[in-house]
Write a structure and sequence with these properties.
It comes from Eruca vesicaria subsp. sativa (Garden rocket). With about 1050 residues, this protein is an alpha+beta fold. The protein contains 40 helices and 19 strands. Strands 1-2-6-3 form a 4-stranded mixed beta sheet. The protein has a 4-stranded mixed beta sheet with strand order 9-10-15-12. Strands 11-19-16 form a 3-stranded antiparallel beta sheet. Helix 13 packs parallel to helix 20. The chain is elongated. It starts with a helix and ends with a strand.
Length: about 1050
C-alpha cells in the first residue's frame, strides 16, 4: 500500500501541475495578450493585432532583413533601414504613440516628450525589462540594475566621472588617440599624401585602448584582451538571440553556446586576475589607483556594512564600462567622420576652430572645453546617429502615464532615433545635418522638450557622457590637426543596429561581395513569393507546434529534475560528507511524516514538568535523539534542510549575511508583512541603516510613557474584573497581553493615529489565521490563485490593511506639506527617509508601508509571547515571582516605573532572559544557499536550506548542562556571555549583523508590563490552565493562559 500511496500522490500532483502549466501557458500565449490588446485599444492607442506566440517578431525580422539587404544613398533617410517596422507604424498612425508585439509582450512606443519625461524621471516605477539571459555575459552592471542596487552603484561610481577626474584622464585619451593617428600617418605616407583607410576598426581599437587605460591603468594591456573577448561574445550572442524563441535554447550544448561560455569564463578569469593583483597591492600598503577599478575596489571595503560593492559587482561594472564606453564613443566618432566627409564646409569650420585654439600643440582640457563648433557638430551627430536606437522599460504593476493607464506586463519603448528625427519636434529639416541648430545650446534647440536623449535623460542619464564627449573631442581635434578626409568611392552607406548603430560594411567587404549580396537577396525574395501561398498557414503552425513540444519536454525534464534527480544527488552529496538524515520521498519529502507527528503531539497537552520540545518540534527532536547532538538533514518537500547544532557553524551563518540569505517563503505570507525581516543584500542594508535611529536608547526612553499608558489601561481592566469577584479572580491573560502589546505598537509606531493603527492589528491577526489555513494546501501548484472563500478574504483583508495604512501615511504627508514638524514615532522616521528616495537614499511609500506592517506584526507577537510565558513561569515558580516583586518594590515602591529604574531591574532581566531561552518567540530561523558554499568542514550544494534551531540549541544539555530544561534564571546572574561561555547558544533575537533591531524596545516594554503587574497582583496557575505550547508564527499557548490574579 505504501508504494501505491506514494505513486497516487505523485500522479495527482503531476496531473495538477500539468493542468496548471497548460493554463499558465494559455494565459501567457493568448488570454493575457488579448485582454491587454483590448484594454489598450479602449484607451485609443493604435497598434497591431496580436498573432499567437510570435506577435510582430516575424514581420519585424522580415522587414529588417529586407532593409539590410541593400545600402542607401547618403541623402536617404536612415529610419526605414535601421528601424523599418517602427517607422512603418509611425507613417501609418502619425506622430503618436502606438503598440506592437515582441512575442507575447505588448510594447508601447512613446512619441510624446511629456510621457518620455515622466518615464525617465520615475526610475523606481519604470524599471529595466528582463533581457535575453546570455546578453548578461557581456555586461550587466549599473545599466541593468534597478531600485536600491542601481542607486547604490550610481552613488559609488559617480565620483569616478567628476570633471576633475575626467581632466586627469585627458593624457590617457591623448596617448591612445595619437598612436592611432600616427599609424594612419604611416599608411597615408606610404601611398604619397593621400590614401584610403577603413577608419571603423581603427576607431574601435582606439576607444577600446582608452577604456583599458582609464579603467585599468597600468593593467591596460590585459584589459585589451577583455575587449577582444567582448567583441567575440557580442557576435556570438547576436547569433544565439536569433534562436531564443526555442525554450531553453541557451542550455543546449551547441558549438556557439560552448564558445560563449568559454569566452565569458576567460574574460572573468582575466578580470579577476587584475582585481586580485590590485587587492594584493592594497594589502601591501600601496595607495589606491585613481582609475575606475581603483574607485570600485575602494567601495568594496564598505561591503561588510552594506555600503560597498562585492567583488562580483566590481567585475560586472568593469565589464559594462568596457562594453558601453568603447561602443558608444566608437560609433560617435565613426559617424562624425562620415558626416564631416559628406559636409566639407563643417569639416573646414571645425578644423579652423581647432587650429585657432591649439595651433600645432597637444590638445588639453581647457582648450577642448572651448571647442564650440566641434560641440555643435558632435551634438548633431548624436541627434542623427545616436549610439542606442531606443531604450526599454518594463511595467510590473498597473501604472498611470499621463492620460493612459498601463497594465502590468506591458513594456515601454523610448525610440531615441525616431524622436530625434521627428519633424514635429525638430522641423522639416529634421533629417538634415545642421549643427548650428545647437549654437545656443541643447535647451534652445529642443525648446525645453525632452526630445534630445542620446545619453538617456533624468536620474538614469549616462554617468559617462562627459567622459565620452571629452574623448571624442580629443580624437577629432588630433585627426583634424593632421588630416582632411572625404568619403572613398568604395564607401557604402549602410547604418544598421547591433547593440549600437554601426556602419554595416567596410569597403573591403563591399568590394568583394557587393554583387553577390544583391543577387542572393533577390533570389531569396523570389523563392518566398512562389511558396508563400502554399506554406503560409503551416509556416505559422509548425514553429508553434515545435516550440510547444520542446517546452513540454523541457518542462517534464525540469519537473523530474526538481522532484527526483536533484534531491537524490544532493542527498548523496550530504551523506558522503558524513551528515545523517532521512531518505528522500518523491515530492513530499518528510512533510507527511512531520504533519502526522505534529498532529499526534498536539492532540494531548503536557504536564508542567514535561519537556516541550517533543510537542513543538517532534521530527527534529526525534532526529536529535536518533543521531545524537549533531547536525542532520530532513526534507521540506524536495528541498533538503540541514539543521545545524554546532555553535561555530551557526556563528558563521549568522555573520555571512550576503552568502546565507532568507529563503523564499509561502507567497501569501508576504501579505502579513515583509519589510526588513524578508529583505536581503543592499535593500536590507539600506533599510537597516534608515530604521536603526528609531531604536536608539534615547528614542526608546521617549517611548516609555506610551508603554506605561498602554500597560496601565490593561491592568486597570484586570483590577475591575478581579474586584467584581472579591480580591481574587481567574483571567485568561493571553488575549489581554496581545491587546496590550498591539496598543503599545500602535502608540509608538503611529503616535496620534494609534486608534487607526489598532485596526491594522485586528486585520493582521485575522490574516495570520487565514494564512495558516491556506499554507496547509500550499503543496497544490498555484493554490493561492484559486478563488476560494479563504483566498478571497485574504486578499480583501490585505487590501483593507493597506488602505488603512495608506490613509495614515497620506495624513502625515499632508501635515508635512502644511509645514508641521515630523513626528518622532517610527512612521515619522520612515517618512523622513522617504524624502531621500529620489537619489536612492530613502524608502518608497510602499517600503514604508511594509516596514510598518512588519514592525506591527513582529513587535506585537514577540513581546506578547514573552510576557505570557513569563507570567506562566512565574506562576509555576512562586519564589522567583516573590524575588522579582521584592526588587520592583525596592526600586519603585508604589511609584510609576521610569526608564532609569527599569534599567536597574537585575532579577527581572535574569527572568526575562531565562524565559527567552526556554520559550523563544521564534523557534528556528531558515537560511537559503543559492550557490555552492563552504561551512566549516562541510561543502553545501546550491538548493540546500539551513535551519538554525533556536529552541533546540537553547535547551541543548551539551551547551547548557543537565538542567537545560529547568527554569533557573540565576544562570544569567553574570550576564549572557558568562551563561553561554561565549558560545553562540543563546539567540532568541537572532545574532550577528541581522540581530533584531527591536530587542531593546521589547525588553523595556516587557519590564514595564511586568513591573506594573507585580506591583498590583500576585498570580498563580488556574486549575483550568492547560500546558500546551504550540507554534503558529511564534510560540503561543494553544488553549490560552488561565491564571488566578490576587490583588495586593
Amino acid at each position: 500500500m505504501e508504494a501505491s500511496a506514494v505513486l497516487a500522490t505523485v500522479s495527482v500532483a503531476t496531473a495538477v501541475a500539468v493542468l496548471w502549466w497548460i493554463w499558465r501557458t494559455l494565459m501567457w500565449v493568448w488570454f493575457k495578450p488579448k485582454m491587454i490588446e483590448s484594454y489598450l485599444r479602449r484607451q485609443g492607442l493604435p497598434g497591431t493585432s496580436y498573432t499567437l506566440l510570435v506577435g510582430d517578431v516575424k514581420r519585424d525580422y522580415s522587414m529588417l532583413k529586407e532593409a539590410k539587404s541593400k545600402p542607401i544613398k547618403l541623402t536617404d533617410d536612415i529610419l526605414p533601414r535601421v528601424v523599418p517596422f517602427p517607422f512603418h507604424m509611425l507613417k501609418t498612425h502619425g506622430s503618436t504613440s502606438f503598440f506592437t508585439w515582441r512575442g507575447a509582450i505588448p510594447t508601447i512606443t512613446l512619441m510624446d516628450p511629456e510621457h518620455i519625461k515622466e518615464v525617465c524621471n520615475k526610475v523606481f516605477e519604470f524599471q529595466k525589462p528582463n533581457t535575453f539571459p546570455l546578453a548578461k555575459l557581456i555586461a550587466t552592471g549599473i545599466f541593468i540594475h534597478d531600485g536600491d542596487k542601481w542607486a547604490k552603484h550610481r552613488r559609488i561610481i559617480n565620483p569616478a566621472f567628476h570633471v576633475e577626474k575626467i581632466k586627469n584622464k585627458v593624457p590617457a585619451f591623448y596617448q591612445s588617440c595619437i598612436e592611432v593617428v600616427s599609424k594612419w600617418d604611416n599608411i597615408v605616407s606610404d601611398k604619397g599624401l593621400s590614401g584610403e583607410v577603413d577608419v571603423w576598426p581603427w576607431l574601435m581599437s582606439m576607444t577600446a585602448e582608452i577604456i583599458s587605460r582609464t579603467a585599468f591603468g597600468s593593467s591596460y594591456k590585459e584589459g585589451q584582451r577583455i575587449f577582444d573577448l567582448q567583441v567575440e561574445l557580442t557576435q556570438l550572442i547576436i547569433d544565439a538571440s536569433k534562436k531564443n524563441c526555442i525554450p531553453g535554447y541557451r542550455y543546449y550544448p551547441t558549438k556557439g553556446n560552448r564558445r560563449i561560455k568559454a569566452a565569458a569564463k576567460e574574460s572573468e578569469v582575466i578580470l579577476r586576475g587584475i582585481i586580485n593583483k590590485r587587492l594584493r597591492a592594497r594589502e601591501a600598503g600601496e595607495a589606491p589607483s585613481e582609475d575606475l577599478l581603483g574607485t570600485l575596489l575602494e567601495s568594496n571595503l564598505g561591503q561588510a556594512k552594506g555600503d560597498g560593492m562585492s567583488i562580483e559587482d566590481v567585475m560586472e561594472e568593469c565589464k559594462f564600462f568596457y562594453f558601453a564606453g568603447q561602443e558608444s564613443t566608437a560609433v560617435l566618432l565613426v559617424w562624425t567622420m562620415i558626416l564631416l566627409s559628406q559636409h566639407q564646409g563643417w569639416q573646414a569650420r571645425a578644423r579652423e576652430e581647432v587650429k585657432q585654439v591649439f595651433g600645432d600643440k597637444e590638445p588639453d582640457t581647457e582648450g577642448l572645453n572651448q571647442l564650440k563648433v566641434m560641440t555643435m557638430v558632435i551634438y548633431e551627430v548624436l541627434r542623427l546617429y545616436p549610439p542606442v536606437a531606443y531604450m526599454y522599460r518594463a511595467i510590473y504593476k498597473e501604472m498611470k502615464l499621463g492620460d493612459l493607464t498601463l497594465p502590468a506586463g506591458v513594456e515601454i519603448n523610448i525610440p531615441i532615433l525616431l524622436l530625434q528625427r521627428d519633424t514635429h519636434l525638430w522641423g522639416e529639416d529634421a533629417a538634415e545635418f545642421k549643427p548650428d541648430r545647437f549654437k545656443d545650446g541643447i535647451s534652445k534647440a529642443t525648446k525645453g522638450q525632452v526630445s534630445f536623449i542620446p545619453f538617456s535623460w533624468g536620474p538614469r542619464i549616462c554617468v559617462g557622457q562627459s567622459f565620452a564627449l571629452m574623448e571624442a573631442k580629443m580624437a577629432m581635434a588630433l585627426i583634424l590637426q593632421r588630416f582632411s578626409f572625404e568619403l572613398s568611392p568604395s564607401y557604402v552607406h549602410a547604418p544598421y543596429k547591433v547593440f549600437t548603430i554601426r556602419p554595416q560594411f567596410d569597403f573591403r567587404e563591399r568590394s568583394i561581395n557587393d554583387g553577390a549580396l544583391i543577387y542572393r537577396s533577390k533570389e531569396c525574395h523570389l523563392s518566398l513569393s512562389i511558396l508563400r501561398k502554399k506554406m503560409e498557414a503551416s509556416a505559422v503552425l509548425a514553429p508553434v507546434s515545435v516550440a510547444i513540444a520542446i517546452a513540454v519536454l523541457w518542462w517534464i525534464w525540469r519537473t523530474l529534475e526538481w522532484v527526483w534527480f536533484k534531491p537524490k544527488m544532493i542527498e548523496s552529496c550530504l551523506r558522503r560528507q558524513g551528515l545523517p538524515g532521512t531518505s528522500y520521498t518523491p515530492l513530499v519529502g518528510d512533510v507527511k511524516r512531520e504533519v502526522s507527528m505534529l498532529m499526534e503531539a498536539r492532540s494531548k497537552p503536557l504536564k508542567l514538568t514535561d519537556d516541550i520540545v517533543p510537542r513543538v518540534l517532534p521530527l527534529p527532536f526525534h532526529m536529535l535523539k536518533t543521531h545524537g547532538i549533531k547536525s542532520f538533514f530532513t526534507w521540506r518537500g524536495p528541498i533538503p534542510t540541514i539543521t545545524l547544532m554546532d555553535p561555530e557553524h551557526i556563528k558563521e551563518v549568522c555573520n555571512k549575511i550576503y552568502e546565507f540569505q532568507k529563503p523564499n517563503t509561502f507567497p501569501l505570507a508576504k501579505l502579513v508583512s515583509t519589510g526588513i525581516f524578508s529583505h536581503d543584500g543592499d535593500k536590507w542594508a539600506k533599510h537597516r541603516r534608515i530604521i536603526n535611529p528609531a531604536f536608539h536608547l534615547e528614542k526608546i526612553k521617549n517611548m516609555v510613557p506610551a508603554f506605561h499608558q498602554s500597560c496601565i489601561e490593561v491592568i486597570g481592566k484586570w483590577d475591575n474584573i478581579v474586584s467584581d469577584k472579591g480580591l481574587s479572580g481567574e483571567v485568561d491573560v493571553w488575549p489581554w497581553l496581545m491587546s496590550l502589546t498591539a496598543d503599545v505598537i500602535s502608540r509608538t509606531a503611529f503616535g496620534s493615529s494609534y486608534e487607526e493603527g489598532h485596526r491594522i492589528f485586528t486585520i493582521q491577526l485575522e490574516l495570520t489565521q487565514l494564512l495558516i489555513h491556506a499554507s496547509r494546501k500550499s503543496c497544490f501548484p498555484g493554490y493561492r490563485y484559486y478563488p476560494t472563500k479563504v483566498n478571497r478574504r485574504i486578499k480583501a483583508a490585505a487590501r483593507e490593511s493597506e488602505d488603512t495604512l495608506r490613509g495614515i501615511i497620506n495624513k502625515r504627508l499632508r501635515a508635512r506639506l502644511a509645514g508641521e514638524a515630523p513626528s518622532q514615532d517610527l512612521l515619522g522616521t520612515l517618512l523622513e527617509a522617504n524624502l531621500g528616495q529620489a537619489n536612492g537614499d530613502g524608502m518608497s511609500i510602499e517600503d514604508v508601508m511594509e516596514e510598518c506592517k512588519f514592525f506591527y506584526f513582529a513587535g506585537q507577537e514577540s513581546t506578547s509571547v514573552l510576557l505570557v510565558w513569563t507570567m506562566i513561569m512565574l506562576s509555576q515558580h512562586q519564589d522567583w515571582q516573590a524575588r522579582a516583586r521584592q526588587e520592583i518594590n525596592q526600586v519603585f515602591g508604589d511609584k510609576e516605573p521610569d526608564t532609569k529604574g527599569l534599567n536597574q531591574l537585575k532579577v527581572m532581566t535574569m527572568i526575562l532572559y531565562e524565559v527567552l531561552r526556554l520559550y523563544p518567540p521564534v523557534i528556528y530561523m531558515a537560511r537559503a544557499i543559492y550557490k555552492e558554499m563552504k561551512l566549516g568542514d562541510l561543502t553545501l550544494p546550491d538548493g540546500v536550506q539551513i535551519n538554525l534551531p533556536i529552541m533546540l540549541l537553547q535547551r541543548d544539555t551539551n551547551l547548557w548542562g543537565e538542567d537545560a530544561a529547568e527554569f533557573k534564571p540565576d544562570r544569567f546572574k553574570d550576564g549572557v556571555a558568562k551563561a553561554t561561555k561565549s558560545q553562540i547558544s543563546y539567540i532568541p533575537f537572532s545574532w550577528g549583523p541581522r540581530i533584531c533591531l527591536g530587542q531593546n524596545f521589547a525588553m523595556m516594554e516587557a519590564k514595564m508590563a511586568m513591573a506594573l503587574i507585580l506591583q498590583r497582583f500576585s498570580f498563580e496557575l488556574s486549575p483550568s490552565y492547560v500546558h500546551a505550547p504550540y507554534k503558529v508564527f511564534t510560540l503561543h499557548p494553544q488553549f490560552g493562559a488561565h491564571l488566578i490574579l490576587h490583588k495586593l
